[in-house]
Amino acid sequence: xxxxxxxxxxxxxxxxxxxxxxxxxxxxxxxxxxxxxxxxxxxxxxxxxxxxxxxxxxxxxxxxxxxxxxxxxxxxxxxxxxxxxxxxxxxxxxxxxxxxxxxxxxxxxxxxxxxxxxxxxxxxxxxxxxxxxxxxxxxxxxxxxxxxxxxxxxxxxxxxxxxxxxxxxxxxxxxxxxxxxxxxxxxxxxxxxxxxxxxxxxxxxxxxxxxxxxxxxxxxxxxxxxxxxxxxxxxxxxxxxxxxxxxxxxxxxxxxxxxxxxxxxxxxxxxxxxxxxxxxxxxxxxxxxxxxxxxxxxxxxxxxxxxxxxxxxxxxxxxxxxxxxxxxxxxxxxxxxxxxxxxxxxxxxxxxxxxxxxxxxxxxxxxxxxxxxxxxxxxxx
Length: 381
What we know:
Blueprint: H1 2-14, H2 19-30, H3 38-41, E1 45-57, E2 62-74, E3 83-89, E4 98-99, E5 109-117, E6 120-123, E7 135-136, H4 144-159, H5 165-172, H6 178-189, H7 194-203, H8 211-224, H9 226-229, H10 233-245, H11 249-265, H12 270-281, H13 288-293, H14 295-303, H15 309-320, H16 325-339, H17 343-352, H18 359-380
Parallel strand pairs: 3-4
Antiparallel strand pairs: 1-2, 1-5, 2-3, 5-6, 5-7
Helix pairs in contact: 4-6, 5-6, 6-8, 8-10, 10-12, 11-12, 11-14, 12-14, 15-16, 16-17, 16-18
């Protein structure tokens, strides 16, 4: 390597080339070119398809849909116009079949992932980083449009030479489309190269890096370099920022799901989690049912054997301030279960009922305290 660099330097002194070009040549020698394979881009056959017929078998709690392929993004092109079959549960109670809500309907279009086995194609439910297909147009708060953009990006990147894909994917990391950003992170991290990790570490500081991309990067970094990342100050700052940087309900759901996993695994300070959840709850642009779901993150605190005081104080603050009735009712239920196991907490909660203006919240609080006490007594018997 030293001889090569010395030769390049001599050439530089003789030939009219720039020092920047010289450094780029040296860098290309030191760092091997990263190849992105088709499987890294998407491990499944990816198609857009239309449901053309529905057959119900109520006695077996099964719905059978025939789905025609309209376009192939990844996979054999002769699949277009082919038919694949999807079996689903009608009631959602059949543990052996997928359940769709709303139910599959004739004429609906979606993006599907397929896997070939036993001489036929089967619908599959992709692993983390490749989204939960099918993305259906008729779903409430559908992500079909965003998933379509992702599928088209997969198709475009597949057409590029393998040596050029790395640069293409790098650009997509900062896409404003969450599905694209998190997918690009997933693809890059599969290379497990120092060059990729350095690039992704610099991306963390970019204000245009989507929250969904940050979540995916946190998952990957926890796997690849857990001892340097999991307890780092940089990670704490990143996660604390998620709540205030959420742009829509889709991102809020992703943040909450990730925070719940972090809380269960006890891999971050409780104060950091409280900060993120507080920002979510105060964001009135997020659906109320999603904000209520964020309480589950705090709910893991007592069950891990940690200090319950932080969780208790968090619930207390929500009840003392004026939030939506649904949120306060759920908070009242949760604080009751903590209060019955601690005399000091119980006194605080009973005093709290005088400060709460909403009568229904007060009634819920008293009922929940009684139920919690009854269950506690049953456990002693």
